Amino acid sequence: MEYKVLIGLEMHCEISKTNTKVFSSAKNGYNNAPNTNIRPVDMAFPGTLPVLNKEAVKKALMASMMLSCTQPEYLCFERKNYYYPDLPKGYQITQETKPAPIGMYGKLVYECKDELKTVRINNIHLEEDAASTDHYTSVSKIDYNRAGVPLLELVTEPDFRSAEEAVAFLETMRSNYQYADISEADSKKGQIRCDVNVSIMEASLDESNPENWGTKVEVKNVNSFGGVRDAINYEIKRQIELKENGTYDSMEQQTRRWDEESGTTIYMRDKVDAIDYKYFIDPNIPKLKLDPLWLEEIRKEIPVLAFERKQKYMQEYGLSNYDATNLVKEKEISEYYEECISYGVSPKSACNWITSIILGHINKYELKITDIFVTPKMLADLIQVLEKGDISSKQAKEVLYDSLKEDKEPLKIIEEKGIRQIGNDEEILKIVKEVFVENKEAKEQYKSGKTNIVDFLVGQVMKKTRGKANPAMAMQFIKEELER
Fold first, then answer.
1. How confident is the model at residue 422, as a pLDDT?
2. SS3 call for 121
3. How far apart are alpha carbons 233 and 428 in whole angstroms?
4. The whole model's pTM is what?
5. Number of Cβ atoms within 10 Å of the Cβ of 181
């Protein structure tokens, strides 16, 4: 039997680009030393009161606008009541429905396998993160550094039909958060986590009718995009097997966790509904009226995001889909590229040097483009020297590799090593004549149809000049000599 898959995502992303946490003055920053970025309010000490971080609200509103959501007239926060060791208050300050989260009913266009897809956004809301727990053989330790960090939770409709679509969406959102300076969105720092909802239904049924949907299974706190892909694929396979053996229809709505070691999802508990959390308005946080003028200011600050930049690179600069995708994948790389071409370098030339040598270097040594010594201005200077004909392409590559390894400016390397291409007509012509003297049979071979002798002779000129001769000029003089 054929089946349809319905996948929805709940993407959690920390707002890492604020100085302090969402309701306290504690530093908002990644720290390997546990329990250092904390204040009494984060620990829920008696007598402490939360104070809302305006910058966190601003960035959350920007994310809402980027998703074409509607923003509420008033901003309220609620208490989500449940017990867990890493939640010292016994509740989480979040948003549910009163009057509405920071963004409702939006959409996002994303790309998957060169095809544009659209996902509906149910809501995006601002809340506080919980502390983090590390489990050991006989003890568990809690680090409160993360408690109270501003967190965005984005809830989609079940519009994804494959793991590939879900991951492509997550990658797009991570890029958007980075481009808008909302978050580093670094999964290695625990800044991105995802809950995945998966169900299946018979392919012949109408998916627009929720009654035809299968039982929803939620997979909690998947910490990597690769994990999201694997968890979805495993859960699809597991649910189809249950359907085939006749036990799927009796399965209760449930929450599971993804176990990377076994590559399986493991049952945790029955899925709870909103009513089980006993939401109510937090009495310590006043209702905030959102000024329309402030909202308009925020909307104007939204930068050009990766999708729009990619379209520009392809349509205006003539780059391929592959090259444009590589350049916009990370904000820092796109900014490096745009700064490079701002110095008058051809967009295609800058693209070729960045995607081949620069990206190759940072991938090999696991660096960020902001870590390397070669600035966009240095790369532009090197490209311009090459385009003037002062050095050859081979020489330029060697200079750039040396610059990356030695942390030395390309132009200084050219000067110190005396690397200059021979572009003087008389000097090159003299060397060409020497090559013909040393290869007297070349003209006869050329006349007999062996035209590849041209490449051989150019190679001899380059050899005699140690690669310094302008190859195009050398080839021109050689052909003229052969045609005489």
1. 63
2. strand
3. 63
4. 0.84
5. 14
